[in-house]
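Two proteins, back to back. First:
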Amino acid sequence: QEEAGIPHVVDPFGGSYFMESLTSSLIEEATKLLDEIEKLGGMTKAVESGIPKQRIEAAAARRQALIDQGEEVIVGANKYQVENAEPVEVREIDNSAVRKEQIRRLQKIKKNRDSNKVDSALNTISNVAESGEGNLLTLSIEAIRLRATVGEISAAMEKIWGRYNAPIHSISGVYAKSFPDQNEIAQVRDEINDFAKKAGRRPRIIVAKMGQDGHDRGAKVIATAFADLGFDVDIAPLFQTPEEVVKQAIENDVHVIGISSQAAGHKTLIDLLMKVLKKENSEDIVVVAGGVIPPQDYDFLRDLGVACIFGPGTPIPGAAREVLAAISNKT
């Protein structure tokens, strides 16, 4: 009823103008995008330029602004929320134990395979990657049959080609302009400006994802929205280790590390992050976390020293205020 808007139209599926108009609009807008991609030289060129990613992030920021204000309804998240909801049973996985077991298995495989044959297969992959003559897929399958790992095969090609890093382009103004209540945006900006006057600089946050969590839509929305509200924002590359995140945070002199977690690695990775901060004598940096984190894990993260935890449906202006308060409490 709320999300599709079907009740607002009589008989929408009866070949009505409503449905025909939607179909026509979809075709027209899709054609514009396809024409734009063709002018850029095709999809490969477009991806290299970062344009598709920027458009997706801009659309996500606009939508999030409407969701935060309740203009776009997500049933159960910002409307029709259940009071006293029963906790969802979550299967607990010991990430450290899984990691140790996987390492043990890898060591066993490497010990029992023919290393000379594996090295020869990997060298062949590198040679073909350099010459461009040969079928890398066939060679990769042959290497795997010799018990080469995916990481080793990737490294053999990376040695020649290097590693692709998606360009990080931050977008600005989209979230704030799309937020219906401009008074609330202005109030948050005023609070941030007051902080900047007292501290001598704006609050600075690095938004990071650790481990093999590549779901960065939420992180990019947060980065865009916080920048619109007045934060200085750094975006870390994907797939960072806790050590890499802390190193970049120290180098950029941030007030806050914001960890986005969508792949259930928060307990293991944030624990490691806090230990690295302590080792580097940087415990003055505030750590906040958000994403798909079960509520039953909140106390564990707070005990580690995480200042704020933001679950699905948290309005961003409110989150910004909480982060600002956490910084003020540390300084």
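And the second protein:
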Amino acid sequence: MTLDGLLLIDKRAGCTSHDVVQQVRRALRQKRVGHCGTLDPDATGLLLITVGQATRLTRFLIHAPKVYEGTIRFGIATDTYDASGRVTAERPIDGLTTERVEAAMTAFVGTFEQDLPAYSARKVGGVKFYELARRGEEVPEARKEVTVWELSRLGELAGDRLEFRLSCSSGTYARGIAHDLGAALGCGAHLASLRRTAAGPFRVEAALTLDELVERQRSEAPLGDAWMPLERIPLPFADAALDAAQERRIRNGQTALLPGVASPEGEWLRLLDRRGAAIAVGTVSERVGALAVVQPRIVFVPGADVVGFSRI
């Protein structure tokens, strides 16, 4: 049986996001499985797993804002900016207070250019930064624009550690913020632990651990809120319902004229059949008065692979 949908997994520490994909593939007995946003091996929490034809929706889900909770340890800097790395500096934290840390955090709220860690998946000449770093080769400097909406403490400074919450744009390096915060305070720091609690509208409370997934599959128990079929996956654009004639055209890769669609030209739409099932996603190619001309870009075929009608 082919499954098409989104699965919420609560990743444990010590495995890669690719490891999770492989284990989900085996547990669900599905070939097409992907994920929407990498978690570092030591990090835990929410990982969005696309299954079957939903793998073609990854591009719409991967850029969702993320929320994390974690712990920063001050006084020790590492080459990876987290607890897995080699210690590069140790400094005393005498005089470090909760108030000083909180004041320094404010500089990391807003939109700014973040220096990428040397141990990151960014590529240069087809080689990942972390591969260069592990070989002791020079890693080029690189930056990317990120947005942090919240960086706040969760409690008081306890010795050399402080728990925090981070709400940020996709692609923000939490360990980079921990490292830079320590540098700003003059004592150094690294990310001691990290847990992703949300990605867009998805929450870790609804997710299953891999062990829970395996057990539910073994006992044929429902996956509950951790599973969403194609038509229930929240997407960052509107739905449009089709009548029988429109559905036939869309399934055949042809444009359809849709009334009652307010989306502007170029906007994406999820297209639903008369039963409310998702059959395609497409774009408004043009507007003709009150009508939207909708071009299907990805058509979902029940029990089969996705059909693509353009290079997108």
